[in-house]
Amino acid sequence: MLAISFDEYCRIDAVNWSKLKRLWVGSPLHYKYHLESGEDDDSVGRALGRECHRLVLEPDSPPDYVIWEGGDRRGKAWKEFEAEHNGKTIFKPGEVSSVYKQAEAILKHPVARSYLEGAEFEKTIQWQHRHTKLNCKGRLDAYKPSVI
């Protein structure tokens, strides 16, 4: 298992579930298009999930978002704000506050806490599929070897 950044993980030339799932939810052409276009079907919901993930599993990492207080996400002011914060996730006020409550609830829950205590987080694994010979990769949110 490797302890590498997410950017390094993304640069590994291998397939993973995030890519392969497009074969099940679409078609081989959807898969090919997604690989070649580089488009990402991100949403506010997915961004909020990433922030909860960060708060629970990577609390020492800095937040990677900014707050847009200009109303609707449109118009000249929005475009300028978006350009100024290129690469950052942009939330509206109030969108992120519930995520902090969710993360706190997860960390306080006795069963969740028992799984998280002593675990290693964000570990990368790589292997070659024995039949297809495809190089594969995965990023484990949490890994906790069982004690025998």
What does this structure look like?
This protein is an alpha+beta fold. It is built from seven helices and four strands, in the order H-H-H-H-E-H-E-H-H-E-E. Strands 1-2 form a two-stranded parallel sheet. The protein has a two-stranded antiparallel sheet with strand order 3-4. Strand 3 (120-128) and strand 4 (135-143) form a beta hairpin. The longest helix has 14 residues, at 44-57. It is globular and about 55 Å long. The model has no long low-confidence stretch (mean pLDDT 89).
Structural descriptors:
single chain, 148 residues, alpha+beta, two-stranded parallel sheet, two-stranded antiparallel sheet, 7 helices, 4 strands, 46% helix
List the helices and strands and how they pair.
Elements: H1 6-11, H2 17-25, H3 28-37, H4 44-57, E1 65-67, H5 75-84, E2 89-91, H6 97-108, H7 110-116, E3 120-128, E4 135-143
Helix pairs in contact: 2-3, 4-6
Portion in beta strands? 15-25%
Question: How many helices does DSSP assign?
Answer: 7
Question: Major sheet: order of its strands?
Answer: 1-2
Order of helices and strands: HHHHEHEHHEE
Summarize the structure.
The protein has 7 helices and 4 strands. It is α+β, with helices and mostly antiparallel strands.
